[in-house]
Specification:
- The chain folds into five domains: 30 residues; 64 residues, SH3 type barrels, CATH 2.30.30; 107 residues, no CATH class; 79 residues; 98 residues.
- By secondary structure, the protein is an alpha+beta fold.
- α4 crosses α8 and α6 packs across α7.
- Strands 6, 7, 8, 9, 10 and 11 form a six-stranded antiparallel β-sheet that branches. Strands 4-3-2-1-5 form a five-stranded antiparallel β-sheet.
Length: 398
């Protein structure tokens, strides 16, 4: 009997051990599969309850989620967009709910108000500046420290307005993402704008404009554009890189001056001119024989061509050589669930701007679009400019 009792106890212990190991393995598996925010402290946890709305950091972006449950530092959630898919988030990637779209509206068009303070914010908070600024960071260029001081002082009242609007959000959590996705960062700077102002001016006064990161970025991007033009091979590539803003700035002194003036960057004119000169020379060699592939846009439709021309802000200044569509039938754009977003046709206008200060023409790519209205129906057609590409002009064109 003693042996049987011992065996029974051993079996029970083994059973409990199996359950514990299974639970531990499941928890570890959930941790491995859960989305995490690598920029957030590993131990961050807002301790949100099941049934609550929240915001999750999903691959560097923000999504509204509904919390289903929480176990072992992992939230089980559902997307708040009608999809039935479940998502697992580690606690450091889940934050108190705020209206993401409303936050985006509040900060829209105000990046130049906040970016001069980001370096100071990073130092004050002890965080990585590269994380704070994110990709594509382009702070405003100022002619000198005095110009910066005036601009930042003028922006103080606007920051006060942003603070007031941010106060209406249900929460302003630190998402540990870059400044475009971090309401706590905007609120910190906007609400303490008077404290941040001297710091930002001090940083600017210690930086020589000729060695500024902005200028280095421009030079790097121009060099990439030059390589694309030089590497262009008509037999293997469809584009040479003449559809960039730098290509236009290289061939058009007027466009270049408007760009530098509009961004308070006239102090950079000399080094920018020098950087753009090789690009202008390379384009001069290749553009005269680089033409749009109009044979791919052979479909004609008078009504849709008239709609395409609406993207031209002042039609009288443009001379149109050819125009056409790539498809006669609508192309359907669908979402991940197979539901149409819209239908479209690709169009191309081969034209010359008669007021341009350069000798080249444009391939203007335009989409004709009908947004999906539901029930198998679509809205009225509209046109959308896709891009302008510098190309050679037809023989004898003026």
């Amino acid at each position: 009997m003693k042996f049987l009792e011992t065996t029974k106890q051993t079996a029970i212990s083994f059973c409990w051990l199996t359950i514990i190991l299974s639970f531990t393995m499941q928890t570890a598996s959930a941790q491995d599969e859960a989305y995490s925010n690598e920029n957030a402290p590993a131990g961050y946890d807002a301790n949100l309850r099941a049934g609550a709305k929240a915001v999750g950091a999903l691959n560097g972006d923000l999504e509204t989620i509904n919390i289903v449950s929480k176990s072992g530092g992992v939230y089980k959630t559902m997307m708040d967009d009608g999809r039935s898919n479940e998502y697992l988030f580690r606690a450091n990637a889940v934050y108190p709910y705020f209206d993401i779209r409303e936050f985006e509206k509040i900060i829209y068009g105000s990046e130049d108000l906040i970016t001069p303070y980001l370096e100071c914010y990073a130092k004050k908070r002890g965080v990585n500046f590269e994380t704070v600024k994110g990709d594509g960071f382009r702070p405003p260029d100022f002619l000198n420290a005095n110009a910066m001081k005036q601009a930042l002082q003028d922006g103080q009242a606007k920051l006060a307005g942003i603070e007031a609007r941010l106060n209406n959000l249900s929460a302003r959590p630190d998402t540990f993402l870059d400044y475009r996705k971090n309401p706590a960062l905007w609120y910190e700077i906007a609400s303490k704008r008077a404290e941040y102002l001297p710091c930002a001016l001090g940083e600017r006064q210690t930086r020589d404009i000729k060695d500024s990161p902005q200028l280095a970025i421009h030079k790097q991007d121009i060099a990439k554009n030059l390589k694309s033009v030089n590497d262009y091979d008509a037999t293997t590539k469809n584009s040479m890189g003449s559809d960039t803003e730098y290509a236009l700035y290289a061939v058009s002194p007027k466009a270049r001056n408007e760009w530098l003036t509009g961004t308070n960057s006239l102090a950079y004119k000399e080094p920018i001119d020098a950087a753009l000169k090789p690009l202008a020379d390379a384009l001069a060699k290749k553009l005269p024989t680089y033409f749009p592939k109009m044979e791919k846009y052979a479909v004609r439709n008078a009504a849709e061509e008239a709609l395409m021309k609406r993207v031209l802000t002042n039609p009288a200044r443009y001379k149109i050589f050819r125009i056409g569509l790539r498809q006669s039938a609508w192309q359907i754009d669908k979402n991940a669930l197979g539901i149409p977003n819209a239908r479209y046709k690709n169009g191309l206008i081969y034209l010359r701007d008669t007021q341009a200060d350069h000798p080249y023409c444009y391939a203007t790519y335009v989409n004709v679009i009908q947004d999906y209205s539901g029930g198998g129906t679509y809205a009225a057609s509209r046109s959308r400019l896709v891009l302008d590409e510098l190309v050679g002009c037809p023989a004898g064109a003026k």
